[in-house]
Amino acid sequence: METSDFEAALSDRIGTVFQSHPDLRDHRVDYPWLTGSLGKPDADVIFVAENPSLSQVERAIDPTGGPPTKEAQWYASRGDKLFREALVASGFKDTRSAPSSCGWAPPIS
Q: Is the pTM of this model over 0.85?
């Protein structure tokens, strides 16, 4: 499954939950960049992290200093910074990648 197909299907499912429970606040209205996922859903390795608090979400900034983007959700806390550094050191992230690739290292052939 391609990442864009996965993200579309996930967004549809999340939308169904919010439609079924109108008392829940849909975070996508205020924070459309906050997806909770980044990368390929069919990867050999998947990291599961904690849910950020609202205060962490509100202080997230894009690494380039602009308004928050999908990549910004991984720059909210010191723990995020340590996690990213570990991913780079282990070869999962590449700091030289174009921003559109979110810095994920290419798969090993």
A: no
